[in-house]
Amino acid sequence: MTAVGTPAATPPPRRRQAGPLIPEGPVRASAHICQAAGCQSMGSDRLLEVLSDEVLGAGLRDVAVGRVGCLGLCSAGPLVAVPEQGRVFERVRPDDGASRQDLLSSLSGEAKGGRPLAGDSFFSPQVKVVLERSGTVDPERVDDYVASGGYTALAKAVSEMAPEEVVAEVVKSGLRGRGGAGYPTGLKWRTVAIQDSHAGKYVVCNADEGDPGAFMDRSVLESCPHQVLEGMAIAGYAVGASQGYVYVRAEYPLAVKRLSHAIREAGREGFLGREVAGTRFGFEVEVRIGAGAFVCGEETALIASVQGGRGTPRPRPPYPAASGLWGCPTLINNVETFANIPAVVAKGGEWLASMGTERSKGTKVFALAGAVANTGLIEVPMGVTLREIVFGIGGGLAPGRRFKAVQTGGPAGGCIPEDLLDMPVDYESLTQAGSMMGSGGMIVMDDTSCMVDVAKFFMDFCREESCGKCAPCRVGTQEMWRFLDRMTRGAGTRRDLEQLESLADMVRSTSLCGLGQGAPNSVFSTLRYFRDEYLAHIDDRVCPAGVCAMNAGGRSEAVPAGVGVAGVGSPK
Amino acid sequence: MAIATVQAAAGRSRPSAPSDDKRWRQVDVRMRRLGYRPDGLIEALHTAQEAFGYLDDEALTYVGESMGVAPSKAYGVATFYSHFMLKPQGEHTCVVCAGTACYINGAAGLLGAIEGKLGVEPGETTPDNKISVLKARCFGCCSMAPVVMVDGEVHGTITPPELVTLLEDL
Amino acid sequence: MSEVRTLQIDGKDVAARSDQTILSAAQDNEIGIPTLCHLEGLSDVGACRLCVVEVEGTPKLLPSCTTRVEEGMKITTTSERLVAYRRKMIEMFFVERNHICAVCVANNHCELQDLATRLGVDHFDLPLMHPKLPVDATHERFAIDHNRCILCTRCVRVCDEVEQAHTWDVAGRGAESLIVSDLGTPWGSSTTCTSCGKCVQVCPTGALFEKGRSVAEPKARRPYLPYLVRVAEREQ
Hints:
The complex is a heterotrimer of chains A (572), B (170) and C (236). Chain A has 20 helices and 14 strands. Chain A has 572 residues and is an alpha/beta fold. The radius of gyration of chain A is 26 Å and the shape is globular. Chain C has a five-stranded mixed β-sheet with strand order 2-1-5-3-4, covered by helices on one side. In chain C, a hairpin with a 6-residue loop joins strand 8 and strand 9.
């Protein structure tokens, strides 16, 4: 079989150089190939070469083939956008000529096939601030970023605004931390800005996106690293720091590569370095690569890790804003928070504050995954309902499947049931519903998921990721997992359930950091909405979803509790 | 940066490389760039692991001493992070994602298939040293769940039989 | 410079210096708060969580060993809820590893045992974990029994902060955390250990002990530690 434009008889002209294909004259149409990790793993990097050759072979001299960041609809990758026609082509594979035919026809001028963006149920309800340039600029070309208005906010901040004015804009925007807890960003900036420090201050970008099922930060760094760097440099200027660190997970090699490349480019162009945008303000950024520890997303653990040590958290106060890296005032924000900053400075705080709800302003990026038709990365204004996300943008569940819950907030978050789907998505509503905003992972579960097993899954995660420093988390997560494990094997009792609940309360209240304090949440939220499933496991020895083996006794490790083996105090 | 730390780093006598294996040069270059400061320990360990595939006692001692940290601290750091390997790995690595989306979409079946085929669990290497099986927290490729990474290449929406074929072809 | 702060602990008006922790202010006023990882003379890590207290207006419990006093604080060190939590913490230590007192060198001289008695912990509800952990008796004078270790890290801190040898550290993480010497190598072969024995002195349980002592023989002389710290500070 031959594809359009590649007749088998004459070999197509080869290009001398790999990379984007840029016509010499004016561009009539362009193919923007997504080069984020998801599409790359489906061959989008090879697609760039294959498609360029085909375009050349077909004699399309006014067609550009370029790299862009994440286009969002990751489940249908590799994705190619043709912006001139407002279309996105799905599943365009390098090894399957037929999958490229509609795209090539469109590039030849005959608009055909693909998915029109206008009015599309996935694309059109989205509002893009953080992902504004994701899918439109080449993540490895600073020129693209600058051409799209990038770094103008930084130039404006350092040359036209006083640091206090920058902080004031961020306060006005109502922006809250996008990493999980939702602490007001402006307040945090102000706290660091007013600190007196002779030894300097630091800005740290937390890109240790550890929540399983969340990939917003990866995508932002892979799609538009300069936007994050610009946000960090603005933050450095506003709080009085001259050194920044980005702490990235080792699992994100492409993000590390693009970020490091962007730092070099920005340095070369004078957006980072000793004289930022030609002023006396200097700001350098270094990348620090994590080494596989979820707890390092906690800010004090992250600091310990940046300093080269074991990533164990320490009690707060003092908060990093007062005493962080090497004891100096340190501003720590998440990738998405920094990515909001250029727009806040360029368009003003009020502009961002005009979006969203009373107490949650702006937009939020979510990673939609699990049992839903359209999975990928979306950005919506705060306050849309979960139903709009799951059944509108997400396209609902597979035919014949019934919605059971949507899990938000990662291992410390919770599961939200069907009757709360009309709840607006903002920090307060999610917390009230027993979950949390978290970093933005949203995993849809259908009737094939067992909620006791889900709680066990998250507890297993927490016990393996517990740093081991404080006893309630180190021992408590193990013990809670054991109770859950007994239930999923059909060996649980009502007494176990009571014990589990009391233990969960104790671990939440006494653990040192957010990992331990949040670990019981999977138990609390599943018990709150799906207690009947627990009782079915315990009283009827049945797993309603048919997930758990329920082979009680099999390899039971049920140790009789309540035995006074230790003989505490007896010799006294 | 505390000035005292820099001075301490400058004044300390540094050990010489354990052997004339050229890979130590790579580690040395990285450590010099990091200023031989204790805060660069993790970065230096990353480089050593890239060069040698894992971190043995010799590497831990040398990197630790060069960066100005005690052996127990270097060992404590290396064992804290799941990315660092203290034992040699197999010729190939197969990493199964154990993130939430993969859990929902059947990662357990993949682990079962591996155990059935190779007889090893995550964290183990086959007796012939051919394949090391590992578990990852999340690759951030949740849209293609379940996901495995074989020798650095991501394979999405993979079924247990497909994975078995993939492993057989290694 | 430290200033004076006035606050209330368990309803009692007290004055403290601004650089004091809640724990130290309470101790000055003879209000006992249970502790395990804290030891006078060593840095505080807030890890054992036994000393958590309620502070009015703060939703979270705060560790008294690392939280500094503030003007007007109203602190509760003992409440029904706190006692229940503390009992559960003690229980956790007992179920985590093997602490059979009757055959322990530290029997009757064990801080964990004392606290269990003081808090009235007389039975366990949680399933026992009790992994079989090694005993390292390769050092000529001392030994470490990991089965008795509660990971308070006093030994790690005294070795680093006072003796400055940094022989000990914590390896692994979570429930697999283990105190190690050098590269997880036998204590007897350590190239950094000075055999000073300070780690043995500060161990709250029977995990670190001097060889040749029989069960229930007094071992530790902890009050010497502040003295050692002062000497070390003078020398610097």
